[in-house]
Amino acid sequence: MQSICIxxxxxxxxxxxxxxxxxxxxxxxxxxKVPTKDIFVQDYAEILSKEVENNLLKxxxxxxxxTSAELVVVTISSLEGHTVEDYALNLFRKWNIGSRVxxxxxxxxxxxxxxxxxxxxxxxxxxxxxxxxxxxxxxxMIPYFKDxxxxxxxxVAHGLILEEIAKEYNIDxxxxxxxxxxxxxxxxxxxxxxxxxxxxxxxxFFIFIFSRIMGxxxxxxxxxxxxxxxxxxxxxxxxxxxxxxxxxxxxxxxSSGGGGASRKW
Length: 265
Hints:
- This is TPM domain-containing protein.
- Keywords: Membrane, Transmembrane, Transmembrane helix.
- By secondary structure, the protein is of the alpha/beta class.
- It has one domain: Diaminopimelate Epimerase, Chain A, domain 1 (Roll), CATH 3.10.310.50.
- The protein contains eight helices and seven strands, in the order αβαβαββαααββααβ.
- Strand 2, helix 3 and strand 3 form a beta-alpha-beta unit.
- The chain is globular and about 75 Å long.
- The N and C termini lie far apart (58 Å).
């Protein structure tokens, strides 16, 4: 009888220990409040240009409309002593990223001071973006970060994630730049926007060849060139926000078991 009580006591102690360990990582993490405007891009570290931020917002909004998946970019100044894994997971869950039914959210988190980044993937997309694929995406982003070009780096990662989600839902995103608000950019550094719809076919052919040479997807190459042509190589800016709003309201999912990948630069 005494041995049974001892075993029961040890078992209870083990459960208590597991519970404590499970809650300690999230204790004291200061997560920003859930945004109600421009929910797909929150640039708290102010490392993105207005043009890039606006484009990412539009693309994520279009992606949600077509798939219900939510692709969110968050930059922060500091992890405040926490690991990037704990911070990303807690933010993902607190914001409830992804749809409530499918849990199909993806978070791209960038911590500026610690020079760390992570892709956090919801349960519903872990098959499409497994840990290895998430790591490969970050590996293509990091070289731009090392050069201080956060605009292009985040654009590249965002584009690659978007492509994987589109494949998972078997949808074609090729008409995004024609049928939506993104087909305008500053080609020559002037103030006259040029619709991509009337750009010569040779420009699209050049993008195709460039993407094959660089070993990247068509949209990834296009996003990168648009970022460069848009003169968005600034490291920091004065807290500018894009005009208008995309993705108002809030999120609805938030289920993630820690799937994804992390990198330093």
